[in-house]
From TrEMBL:
<dbReference type="InterPro" id="IPR014710">
    <property type="entry name" value="RmlC-like_jellyroll"/>
</dbReference>
<protein>
    <submittedName>
        <fullName>WxcM-like, C-terminal</fullName>
    </submittedName>
</protein>
<dbReference type="GO" id="GO:0000271">
    <property type="term" value="P:polysaccharide biosynthetic process"/>
</dbReference>
<comment type="similarity">
    <text>Belongs to the DegT/DnrJ/EryC1 family.</text>
</comment>
<dbReference type="InterPro" id="IPR015422">
    <property type="entry name" value="PyrdxlP-dep_Trfase_small"/>
</dbReference>
<feature type="domain" description="Sugar 3,4-ketoisomerase QdtA cupin">
    <location>
        <begin position="6"/>
        <end position="131"/>
    </location>
</feature>
<dbReference type="InterPro" id="IPR015421">
    <property type="entry name" value="PyrdxlP-dep_Trfase_major"/>
</dbReference>
<dbReference type="InterPro" id="IPR011051">
    <property type="entry name" value="RmlC_Cupin_sf"/>
</dbReference>
<dbReference type="GO" id="GO:0008483">
    <property type="term" value="F:transaminase activity"/>
</dbReference>
<dbReference type="GO" id="GO:0030170">
    <property type="term" value="F:pyridoxal phosphate binding"/>
</dbReference>
<dbReference type="InterPro" id="IPR000653">
    <property type="entry name" value="DegT/StrS_aminotransferase"/>
</dbReference>
<dbReference type="Pfam" id="PF01041">
    <property type="entry name" value="DegT_DnrJ_EryC1"/>
</dbReference>
<dbReference type="InterPro" id="IPR008894">
    <property type="entry name" value="QdtA_cupin_dom"/>
</dbReference>
<keyword id="KW-0663">Pyridoxal phosphate</keyword>
<dbReference type="Pfam" id="PF05523">
    <property type="entry name" value="FdtA"/>
</dbReference>
<dbReference type="InterPro" id="IPR015424">
    <property type="entry name" value="PyrdxlP-dep_Trfase"/>
</dbReference>
Length: 513
């Protein structure tokens, strides 16, 4: 994502007595740790240098003295920078051809580099560089996700964080977790965030901390991922399903008919990163004196009216499973709440029922977000708004360009919601889904189905005695949904490649009729 060269101002402090001091810090000013520094100087007049590309190396180039012109080429574009002051630098991302010219006699060019010297990282031949560049921009296949690119971009910084945590030798319930909990609570606009081992545990802990158990009923959307239901069943309560809106979120119109004397809470999911209609849900809950929780496991940063998902109810669960909008490097989760009682009980529940070590007040379990995950998530969190914006930008390409296809249905979002497109779902006619998916595969396009069997028809729910036909909207979603590639690290070209393939399939289909 960060592949555009950029001129930066280097933080400079000046005093009358002692001149100027300029500072470059990896974490604050660069997107990479500095592994190597070299400088170019004593250049004879009119000598040009460079004439090579780097595949992975990232650099920050500063003329600490004199003047030089830096020309860069990559991703089909050219850039030129005049470097003539020690408080200016150019960030050169990986994969650019570079040439330096117009050196003044006194030029000293300092290069801060992200890696050690590695001959294999160089491309010396310009034609070879063009082939490398074209290979990156020519799309021949599109993976469902592009998570490896995030890792490539931040590889060195993530490794640095990992090393720091290893060195600290405090691996569970330490300062890294505390810091992340503070940051994520602030991000969602809640008072408390409590890290857990995963999203399912966060849901279960919320229910237990709210005294929901055997004999109680919790209303859940029939569209969605099984974890929401499993959490209710794991605390011994009964999930009561209501049919969903076409895109899987709970249909508020169906809720009141499902309320009984045993109902304790409503637990909507913000499925695919699209906020559920919380105002309607909350007003029904208020009328019947019920708690409201959110399954926000797919909705990090999604907004509904004036609030952020995670702050729209009594408590919310998040997952940091690697593919999530804020995904870690293993399992992880948390709950957010502004309810002190839920927060305090949840803190005990996640750690053997103890608020003070070895003093076990309640029957808890072991479900904690470890220091390594917390530290890595803390590093990633500031990028989440940018990634979500990119998801929205790519989703709008789909929404605009696929709307001409009469046979498919595209997700509908209310103006008062800002989704985060954890998934970009479309619905295709159910008798064409297999052929459509085969077409994507033949065109080397990844896809997913969320989810092929509606929850009420899953074998693990058979004791609830639902049957086919009970929730027609959820069943239709299960039969027709296809998730198209969407990742903040996908390029516009890649999404356009998918769009072209989708259009081609349906043009061919309509030609058959
Ligand atoms: C809607 C929803 N709820 C709950 C979960 C459970 O999260 P985890 O996998 O971290 O347990 C997920 C994760 O896939 C999810 O998508």
């Amino acid at each position: 994502m960060n592949n555009i060269p950029k001129l930066i101002d280097i933080e400079t402090h000046r005093t009358e007595q002692s001149g100027s001091l300029s500072v470059i810090q990896s974490n604050t000013h660069l997107n990479f740790p500095i592994r190597r520094v070299y400088y170019i100087h004593s250049i004879e007049d009119d000598k040009a240098r460079g004439f090579h590309g780097h595949k992975k190396l990232q650099q920050c180039i500063v003329a600490t003295s004199g003047h030089v012109t830096l020309s860069l080429e990559g991703y089909g574009k050219t850039y030129s920078f005049e470097l003539d002051a020690p408080n200016k630098g150019v960030l050169v991302p990986a994969g650019y051809w570079r040439e330096m010219s117009n050196f003044s006699n006194d030029a000293v060019l300092m290069v801060l580099a992200s890696d050690d010297y590695e001959p294999k990282d160089y491309i010396h031949d310009k034609q070879e560089f063009y082939a490398f560049d074209a290979n990156r921009t020519n799309v021949e296949k599109v993976g469902y996700l592009a998570m490896h690119r995030r890792y490539e971009e931040f590889r060195l910084q993530l490794q640095q964080v990992t090393e720091e945590v290893l060195d600290e030798t405090s691996y569970i319930m330490g300062p890294r977790l505390e810091k992340f909990e503070e940051s994520f609570a602030e991000f969602t606009g809640t008072k408390y965030c409590i890290g857990t081992g995963n999203g399912l545990d966060a849901l279960e802990i919320i229910l237990r901390a709210s005294d929901i158990g055997a004999g109680d009923e919790v209303i859940v959307s029939a569209g969605g991922f099984i974890a929401t239901l499993l959490a209710v069943m794991r605390v011994g309560a009964t999930p009561v399903l209501v049919d969903c809106t076409p895109w899987g979120n709970i249909n508020p119109v169906k809720i009141e008919a499902a309320i009984t004397n045993h109902t304790k809470a409503i637990l909507p999911t913000h499925l695919y990163g699209i906020p559920a209609e919380m105002d309607e849900v909350r007003s029904i809950a208020q009328k019947h004196n019920l708690l409201v929780f959110e399954d926000a496991c797919q909705a990090h940063g999604a907004e509904y009216k004036d609030g952020t998902c995670g702050a729209l109810s009594d408590a919310a669960a998040f997952s940091f499973y690697p593919t999530k909008n804020l995904g870690g490097f293993g399992d992880g989760g948390c709950l957010t709440t502004s309810n002190e009682k839920i927060a305090q009980t949840a803190k005990k529940l996640r750690s053997y029922g103890a608020a003070i070590k070895y003093h076990h007040e309640i029957v808890g379990f072991n479900s904690r977000l470890d220091e390594m995950q917390a530290a890595l998530l803390q590093f990633l969190l500031p990028y989440l708004p940018e990634w979500n914006a990119k998801r929205r930008e790519l989703a709008s390409l789909y929404l605009n360009q696929l709307s001409v296809i009469e046979e498919i249905e595209l997700p509908v979002v209310h103006d008062h919601s800002t989704p985060v497109w954890h998934v970009f779902p479309i619905m295709v006619p159910k008798d064409k889904r297999d052929a459509f998916c085969n077409h994507l595969t033949k065109n080397h396009i990844g896809y997913n189905i969320h989810y092929p069997l509606a929850m009420h028809l899953q074998p693990c729910c058979s004791h609830l005695q639902y049957k086919a036909g009970d929730f027609p909207v959820a069943e239709k979603l299960a039969a027709c949904e296809v998730s198209l590639p969407l990742d903040p690290y996908h390029t516009t070209e890649e999404i356009n490649f998918v769009i072209k393939a989708v259009l081609a399939f349906f043009e061919h289909e309509s030609a058959k009729n």
